[in-house]
Structure formats: C-alpha cells, structure tokens
Amino acid sequence: MADRSAPSCHLRLEWVYGYRGHQCRNNLYYTAAKEIVYFVAGVGVVYSPREHRQKFYLGHQDDIISLALHPERVLVATGQVGKEPYICVWDSYTVQTVSVLKDVHTHGIACLAFDLDGQRLVSVGLDSKNTVCVWDWRKGKLLSMAPGHTDRIFDISWDLYQPNKLVSCGVKHIKFWSLCGNSLTPKRGVFGKTGDLQTILCLACARDEVTYSGALNGDIYVWKGINLVRTIQGAHAAGIFSMNACEEGFATGGRDGCVRLWDLNFKPITVIDLRETDQGYKGLSVRSVCWRGDHILVGTQDSEIFEIVVHERNKPFLIMQGHCEGELWALAVHPTKPLAMTGSDDRSVRIWSLIDHALIARCNMEEPIRCAAVSTDGIHLALGMKDGSFTVLRVRDMTEVVHIKDRKEAIHELKYSPDGNFLAVGSNDSSVDIYGVVQRYKKVGECIGSLSFITHMDWSSDSKYLQTNDGNGKRLFYRMPSGKEVTNKEELKGVQWASWTCVSGLEVNGIWPKYSDINDINSVDANFIGQVMVTADDYGIVKLFRYPCLRKGAKFKKYLGHSAHVTNVRWSHDHQWVVSIGGADHSVFQWKFVPDRKLKDSLHIAPQESLVDSNSDESDSDQSDVPELDSEIEQETQITYRRQVYKEDLPQLKEQCKEKRKSAASKRRERAPGNSIRLHFVHGYRGYDCRSNLFYTQTGEIVYHVAAVGVVYNRQQNTQRFYLGHDDDILCLAIHPLKDYVATGQVGRDSSIHVWDTETIKPLSVLKGYHQYGVCAVDFSADGKRLASVGIDDNHTIVLWDWKKGEKLSAVRGSKDKIFVVKINPYMPDKLITVGIKHMKFWRRAGGGLIGRKGCIGALGRTDTMMCAVYGWTEEMVFSGTSTGDVCIWRDVFLIKTVKAHDGPVFSMHALEKGFVTGGKDGVVALWDDTFERCLKTYAIKRAALAPGSKGLLLEDNPSIRAISLGHGHILVGTKNGEILEVDKSGPITLLVQGHMEGEVWGLATHPHLPICATVSDDKTLRIWDLSPSHCMLAVRKLKKGGRCCCFSPDGKALAVGLNDGSFLIVNADTLEDLVSFQHRKDVISEIRFSPGAGKYLAVASCDNFVDIYNVMSSKRVGICKGASSYITHMDWDVRGKLLQVNTGAKEQLFFEAPRGKKQTIPSLEVEKIGWASWTSVLGSCCEGIWPIIGEVTDVTASCLTSDSKVLATGDDFGFVKLFRYPAKGKFGKFKRYVAHSTHVTNVRWTYDDSLLVTVGGADTSLMLWTYEMEGHRDSRQCDSEESDLDSEEDGGYDSDVTRENEINYTIKALSTNIRPMFGIKPHLQQKEPTLDERPPVSRALPQPEKLQTNNVGKKKRPIEDLILELVFGYRGKDCRNNVHYLNDGADVIYHTASIGILYNVATGSQSFYQEHNDDILCLTVNQHPKFTNIVATGQETQQICQLQLLLFMCGMQ
Question: Is the pTM of this model over 0.85?
C-alpha cells in the first residue's frame, strides 16, 4: 500500500518527567488552585500533587527559559529562546493562550515579572544589550523599551510598593529603574564601602524603598534607594540563586543546598538543609524556591522538585525527578512490563513506571551512558557507554552481571536477539560485535562491512539476520551469529524483522522529505500491529507516519514539546504509549497512543490550540489524492507581484545618481508645461486575480478598483471619481459596515493599506510597516473599528489593526500557501477566519499574536482549497466556498456538512439577512435560504439576459464570477473578464463597466476624426471604445492570437492590427470584419502605421528587426527596411509619406525612405526641421529631456505629441504618465507627473482634437482617459502633479540664512577636534602621562563606563564640593525658531540654550533650570491645553540621530 496520507490515529502528551533546573531560576510556583507550575523543554507544566495529574501548555516552539506568575496566581507568563522568541501569557486552569508578545526581543527572554496589579509585564532579552521591555500584555502592546546592561541580567522585579519603579540585577551590577511616560531610566546601585562590587543573582522589593538582593558569595545585600546600606554576611555558604517574597516574609535558596526562611525585616526564622535529608545528596543546589503558607517548593539544579511542609521540615517530599544536565540518548522499554529505562551523560540509569508516572529505580554508573537494551525475558539490562565499554545489569536489583570493553569509541546502539541468545553491540568505530548471552557474554562474532559509525540495528524474527544503518546512510545485512555480510539480496526476500528502528530502507522511505539527503532523523520505531511508526528528529518534532511508508514525502502528524534534538523514541511493549527523550532538554515525554476508533468518540473534544500547527506544512492534507487545482486558481497562484524596482526605491535611486544631477543642475532647463491633465474615466475592473472587491456605497454609487486607482462610479450619471493615493496595483478592497469608508491594499516593498472616504475621496488612515510585497485581502470588523489584512510575503502574514490609530494590534504568520480571504467575526471582533490554498483556519486574538486552529474535517473528507468564506447567523457558523464547487458549513471549527453549489470553484459569497448569494466559475449567481438547504433562484450571466438599454457588450456567456454584492434591489456582479454587471432581482442584466481581461494591453490607436479609440491586448481581443460621455465599448472581436499594436487608416474606415505570431490584419473599423491579412514574419508585430494623406502605404514593424512596407491598394509588399540591430519599438511617418522614423530596442534612431526602405542618415538639426505626421518616438535631441535620471532602471515606453506640437506626453515603466514641453531638449527636463497606472504605461495617445489623452497600462489591463486642461483652467485637484526629479537653482534658490541652516549637520563630532588650537600641557597632566584606563571618555551622550566608576571604590579622597548652576547667558536662535514662550500669564519666560531648558522670572530676573538633557536642545514647545498648564516638551540631538528624547517637564517644579 503506497498510501502517502497521514495516519488517522494520533498521540496525546500524557506525562513529562523532569524539571528545568539548570541555567534557570525562579521558575516554580503554586497557582491559586494549589497546583504547581513549572516548565521543562518547550512545555509549560501544571502539576496537581493531589491528583498526580499534569496539564500541558504547548504554545512555545523552543526551550522555555523564564516564567512569571500573575499576582492573582492563575495566569502564567513564559518566555522562550530562539531567533524570534516570544512571550506567552496563558491560563493555568485551561492551559490556553491569553496573549502573545512578540517582534521585539531576539535570542531569548531571560526574565519576566508582572507588576502589582498584574496589568503590565516586564521582560529582559538575551540580546547583547539585554534589552528591558515593559508591555501592556493584554493588548500585546510594547509600552517602553531600553537597553538593560552590557552584561547578563539575572533577575528583575517591580517595586510592589512604589508604582512605576523596577529593580534589575545581574553580573556585577544592580539597577533601579523608573518608568516615566514611555521612557525607562536607570540609576546604578552604589555599592560604596558597605560591600564589595559583585554579581547579584536575585532580588526582592520591600516597603520604604528597601530592596533585598542575593549575591554570588552568599551574602544578602540590603539597599535603601540606590545605596547599599548593610549586608547580611554568610546568609548562605555560596551563591543565592532564588529569593521569594510572601506575606510571612522571604525564602532564599542557594548553591549550598539550603533553604532559609526570613521574617519581613529579614531576621532569620529557620534553615532547611536539603543535603542532610533522606533524599538529599552532596552537591545539591537550589535554583528556585516558593513559599506559600506552610508549604515550600524547592527546585534543584539536577531537575528535582521537593515539597516541604514547614512543621516537618526534615522530611521533604520528592514530587518530580528527571535526568541532570548532560545529553540524554539511551532509551529502552521493558518487553513485558510498562517500564521505560533511560541512561544519560549524567552517568545515571533510571527506570520509570509508565503507569504510576514515577521514577522507581536509579543507579549511577562510572561512565556516561549512550544506549540501552533489555533482554527478551526482561532479566538483563545492557548499557552501552561513551568510552566503548558496555555493562549488563540485573533489572531486579541493578547489580552488575558483566562489564566488557572491546572498543575505544562510544557504543551507540545495542540490541538483544529475539531468541535471547545474542547481544549485538554497535560502536562508533564502524563495527558490530556479537556476544553470546548464555556463555556469560563471550564474543562470538563481528560484523565489519560499514565504513562509518553504526547508528541503528534490527534483528530478524528468527534471530538469523541483523540489519544495520551507519552514519553514511548505508544499510547492510549480516548473517548471525558469525557476522558474515549478506551480499545476495535474494536471500533476504522473506525475512521478517522482529523490530524496525532503522532510518533507511524501503519501508521507511516516506519519512524523508522528497529532496533531502540529510541525517536529521535520529530514531524510528514501528508498531507493526497498528501499522504506524513514530520518528524523532533534530528539530524537536515527534512524527507519526503510516507503516510501511514507501513513497518519499509521505504525510504525517507532528507533535511539538521537545525543544531541540529528540534523540530516541520507542513504543511501550503493549503499544499503548510512545516514549521520547530529548537530547539537550534531557526530559522524558510519555505520549498516549489514541487509535482511530477512539478518535470518533473524541471528536467533540476541541483540539489543543497551538501557535504552530500540529499537522506539518506538507501535511496540510491528510489524504494524498488532493485534486488538481482548478486551472483558473492554478493560474492565479502563479502570478508574482514582485517588482524589480518599487516606487519606494525611487528616492534612493535618485540619490545614487547625484553626480548626474549636479552636472544637469548647472544647465538651465525647460520649465514644466503650463497645461495639465486630469483623470476622467477608467475602463477596467480587476477581476482576474481578486475577489469580493466590488460594493455599493451608502449613496448607491459603486466602489471598486483597477490598476492603482480606487474608483467610485455613479451609475445614473455614468461618471467616476478617483482615489489616487496608491502608487501601485491595488489587490483588495473592503467596505466599512456603514458603507461609507473603504480600505484598499496595494503592492509594494513595504506595502500600504489606505482607508478612505468614498464621499470626499480623502484618506482617513494609511497603514504600513508590516506587509512585504503586497496586501491581498482586507476586512473590517462589524463595529468598523478594526481591520484585518493578509500579505503576499512567503508566510502570508495576517495583521489585525486599530486603523484609526494606525496601530498594529496583533500579527501572525498565516500559511505557506496563498490566502485568498480574511473575515473578522461580526459578533466577536477578536476572532477571524482565513481561507486559501488547502487552508481553512480559525484564529483568535491573544495579545500581540493570533492563535490559529485548523478546520476539523473529521470523516467528511479532505481540506479543499477554499476561495471564499462568510460568517452566518450566529457567531460559530461559518460558510466557505471550495475550489470544487461545494459550500462547506462549519460550526465552531468542525465541518458539519457540504452542499454542491456550482460547477467549478465558488469564487464569491455574500450573506444576507435571510440567506446567501454565491457566484462561481460557471457564471451563475445563486440565491440560497439561510441553511443552504434550498437554492431559491439562479441567474445565468448571458448575453440574452442583457437589458435592452444596456451599453457595452458581454464578451462571452457565463463568465467566471469573482465578486458579488447586494443592495438597492440589485445584485452587483464582477467577472474575471473585467466586467461589472448589475442584475435586477427580476432577471435583466445591465453592463456598467468593462475592460480588458488578464494579459498585457499594448495596442492603442485613436480615430483620426471621431472620439473613438481602439485597443488590442494579449487577451486576444480587439476592442473599440467610445470616448464621448457614454463611455462604453462599441465593438469587440476575438482574435486567434493576442496583439500588440493597431492603427486607424487616415480616413478612419480601416483598422490595422498587428498580432503576436507575426501576422497582421486590416479590418473594417465599424464591423471589425476582415478586409485582408498577411503573415511574413515569425515574431511579434510591434508597431503598425498607415502613411498620412490617402493612407497608401502601411508600415509594419516586427520584433525580428525589420519594417515591411505594403501597398494598401494592391495588397503587396513593396519594401523592407533593414539595418536595425534590435527589435523595433516606435515608428512615425513624415507629412509627405516619404520618410519613416524608427526607434529600436537598442535605443537607435534610424530613418528609412519609403516605399523602398532604403536607410538614410539625417543629422539631428535636420530632423527637427522635418514635418512629422505624428511623433511617438522617444529618442532624438527633441526628447532628450524625457529620460529620467534613473534611465538605466526604467524605460520610457511611449510618447505622443499634441497636434500643436507644444506638449509631449510620455508613459514609462514606473507607471508614471508625464507631460513635458516640446521640444524637450537638454537632459532631465521638468515635467508634471501623474500616477494611476501600476507598473508599465505601455502606450499613450492624444485624441484627434487633443481634448483627451488616452493611456493603457500593460499588466493592469486598464484603459484610462485624461482630460487636457489649459493653463487658466486649474481647479486645484488632488494629485495634480508632483514636482520634477530635481530642482535646480534657477527655481529661485533659498534665502542665504535658510540655505546655511539647511546645511547644518547635527551629527555629534564627539569633540574630536578642539574648538581652538591649544599649546602646552594642561596643569593636571603635567606630572604624569595618563594611563589608558584613566583617560576621560570622549563622548557626551553616554554615562561613564563601569571601569571608571568602580576603580575608586574604597580609595580615600577629598570630598568634592558640588557645583550648582546659577546663571546661564545665551539663547539658541541661530538655527531654531518658535522657541521662546510666556508661561504663567507672562510672569515667566521659557527658552533654551545648549542642553538646558531655562525658566526666567521677569520680575526677579532669576533663572531656574531643567537639566535632564545630555545634548543640545533643538526645539521647544508649550502645551496650550488648559488641562496641562506648564507642560513643556523639548527635543535634543543625540548620537543616534533619529532618537529624539522628548522629555516633558513641569516648569518651576523640577
């Protein structure tokens, strides 16, 4: 059975043996329910001693290293290590996530602490600056952050008696922090003479600014304010790792194995020496204490947890044990009893009872243990050691049977034969030794076929063969017991294996990803009866596969919990459990195996939520027979929205071209033209890769998008208004529940979402900073306050915003595959769903993160690709449309049923008060009742159904429907073909808007004397458009191939069209029927032009570098223009029809004589004198100025000159339409530019009377009409034109003062150069040369380094008299403005100079000062609000230029 699907059974974590005591402290507490919370590996554990039961929090994906308990003792915060570590706040009752705090720390989170009322959480990172962050953890919002210290911080705590004060301690320091506004300011603790400067490991805050701290030498340091006031010597004999405050006093625990209790004034109450108790041992070290009432919890370095009852303090109760530090590799299970044996580098072997969940025996060996095996009768336990020896013990009493050392390198694997007669021992020196068990382990054979260390071995059921795997991934077979290698594969045909733990072999091919050759799977164990197997790998993942698993890349179920390497995994003897062990986390996990038949009963149990899927990425589908994607969806998923250059890169690119600018700026350049254009109408609607992007507004207008334009269309007047705030393709649109605002998301390097008003067309909010490459889906919440968005980055990041504040609330990685839709739950704005390729996920907000659960399909089928989704009539009902035409109905996260709705994908769905409406690829709109039981009505989108008055033409029947919206008694439908239709409830259809379909639009021609234009596109259509106010498509014709160019004959009766296969047609301009067609070329026809006058000749240019000239009357080719070295891009005739101007892709400007096609050379001065019938060329001296500074990056693709030859319009690869004065001589001419197209503007043409400019945008498929406005006619429209690329001096430069101030550079010169020249040696330096560490630091902005502060501790010095600032002369006016203000009704004046804020009393002439700044103040303002009298803000310059410290201060009250 080559089934690649995931198994239907699963594993459930039942018990974790161990506790993380090493490298962690203060991580063990009692919860309010008297349960014990701690962590091990990547799992938070809540243990109930009464019931001997564990609950697990599985929200982390790497080692947890810090833990804090909320003051109400129900919520727990845990922090993990990793590249992007995060903090989870979770509930210890339900073990569900409450909040996720992320995106700030790197490396890991070293300590955590809640404040007194539990509203704020402080965290310390493991990065080089040990960053300290304060969070509003419920919102997931960062309130403040500051660099903590240059060295490790070990503990941090809020002062519980003073608000906004914190204390942190660590390597050789203690710091007292105050939180003011959003800034954290530290003051270092002063050790003075009271105690030695040393590392502080833990602390606790008490009343009256007293702080107690535990030091590395076992003393307790007592601080008052920031000063050390006394020490309690010898509180412990060695470092104090943990200090815990409770109502009765303080408990401390140290490296000396003692726990001491102190009263509230830190007078000793009692000592408990754990080393002296029954369970104690030499070297016991306490890492964590928690004192509650009469119980004390103690966690030790060696992974034990003790519980001490105070009145029986010499009898501590051992409630949890685990292996100590050192890697854990050895694991064996007993053949007949529910026991597991483990052995580790801590030299201990331990036996665990899987039923009682307890350690029942341990024995210490001489050497680190690397592998273990139990004999078939369960009597002997063999242990392989790191030094190459192995030992056999009796399981009964752990006494030694033999100890044999035949090898020098570690023994990595050993196994007893099924008949119990032999023991095979595989070592790292590439050989396997066979020992006879009955002959007291005498060596009887040796296998030496491997070239690398032995990793895995299995015996055959009859004990006659052994298979091995080695480090090279080779699989070898040996005859037993002699050890002779079997080379003839025939011999092995019928061999049954007694166990399967090998990682290579046909049966386990599927555990390896398809294209991997890595050895990251450490262990496998097959369960033959259940036909499943379990694997353990280097990424901390335990996976469940079917067995046998023959085809590579099989699907699986995956389970997280271990943090790093899972070194070994085994089934228990009765296959009830799986035991896995972690290398570095040295923990033992016991998983309960839940077979499929049990699964059916447990469907009502909600799956454990986690931030990471429990199914793997590849394993999105549990079945392997995922249907082929629908062709349309397939096409859509392959569209890439990446750009070589984004508009955001323009300023940078211009910077790089500075040299060119300088040379150009010296020359006088032509002014920009006085006339301008304004966007008037856009033909097109983006349907081919977007959905649900079409809505009615409050006033009954229609809002949608195309290219980079948001369009509000009035269907009564047939007019459009435009939102032009975007500068690249808009990919999604959502409407506010009140139908007055819309949100649109665009493509971009740092893409933005704009929320704008459809009435005023003004932006209300622009959100950026979180989506790379683009935004593909947006949705408003039902109250309109929140907005959800999905990016098109590789992780399809989902972000939840408070859009009015522009604040990101939460974010999460969505899926590897494309997500099509996001929807916020209308009843609970903290919940949302996303649907996409093989993806249906239910999310809920948790602080700064979102927690997702996959839709549970149960027995109903497989996760299909979902194209749309809506919420139903209650908060838990969701309806989604699939790519196969079904509607799935979900309750909570469970699929209840599916209904067949359409043939082909269901692309759009809309919920009504009573019922739903859906639209699909089949071109049918269906109305349903509220349970999808009955289909009430269907509307087929057909030409026959078009209403008589409808303008425009439907391209085909049953176009694929991409968007549906209801309102005003109509159904609004958007199609993949770029049409917007309005369906009346009674059936007739009106066509409102249409444009080209997917494919680039290049061909554009305007009629010689009518307001008509023709376009031809890669979508294989030729279309005629009416440019008069009716704005509709007059005619359309499907072509056999796409086309790139077209041209009207001078009389307007014929239309020539060049196609992409090298042929061209001449058609009747009214009926579009063929008149004549030719094919002489193989490559794309790139430009086609009738000669002026009678239109006697037709010039046809192709991409294979030729221009053919045809005589139109005789339909013969009369000439060929040769000599171009690249494809032809543009062509123009002169007025007489005798000369052709040609541009090529190699930027050549060539001239040919017509009709023969002889090449001519014409000097540029002459070219200007020639009268051209049209000018669409982009080369030559007349249009030198149209090429931008960054001409290497972007091409000017098209140009067109007005008939009065005054204004040249151009289109370029950046999507800009620009107007230049003609001729545009001299480089980098000035221009007006307009953004509406997204990337390439492929063609621009003026109409016959210059009243309109028509532009087409390649891939955005749109046709835009711009009205041409003369100079006087300037109503100040938004986005008229942006300034040109560079402003040269003659634009009226700056005033000299302004110029000077503009050039001031505020980067600190760090006083590297003296202000005036100095001679001689300063007096205090004359005696001796300064040693290096006494030199004053050259910096103004930083405190002195520690060296200087600690060197003089204890040296006697004359006391320094303090200096007090009395008077400051001066005021900073040279480069500041608006920085003098009256305060207190004119009694005082406030201003600044240097780094000081000065309050000057007018009556007395006295000054008072604000001196918290440490560098020049550059700006000052006074709060005018009556509520905040006398509040002043000042901003300074600093070495980090952008970090403006705004310090608010109360004047007169420093």
Answer: no
